[in-house]
Amino acid sequence: MDPFRYKSKQNRSKIIAFVFMFFLISQLLAEEPESFSIMLSETEQLALGRALGLKKTETPDLYQEISATESHDAILFLSAIIHFTSEKWALWLNDQVVNNKTAFPGVFLKEVRPDSIIFTLEREPQKEIILGLNQSYSYNQKRVVDGDARPKGRLSS
User: Fold this and answer.
1) CA atoms of 51 and 45, how far apart (whole Å)
2) Could you write out the DSSP letters of every residue in 8-55?
3) Which residues of the chain have pLDDT under 70?
């Protein structure tokens, strides 16, 4: 194997990782939350939103998520956390990016750790819930379960 070719692959991988981290950090530091996609342009995102019947100003309402009924259990799923410091972090809750400047309606984050979050729900402010990576909180069952427990085939907010 040519050592120079191997070196160029390493450099290319470092550049790609740097560019990805640059986009991610710039999103975390942005003042206004906005939709962001590496794969789709803004025009394509708007067209997709129109095709799905979404409005640009439409934000997910936790009461739609947490208005659990006997036939529908509301689920909060934590898929990822990026934790720089206690003041600089981002997490993915129900496929929505939440950071120290944005919020998920109805969920009050008490603490964000590198591997878990502590939160309360607006409807149950006295009960603290600890949710780890790749875990879901079932509102009807009032418990944390491993994996994504949201119904399959349903568009998440």
Assistant:
1) 10
2) HHHHHHHHHHHHHHHHHHHHHH-SS-----SSS-HHHHHHHHHHHT--
3) 1-7, 9, 27-42, 45, 49-72, 153-157
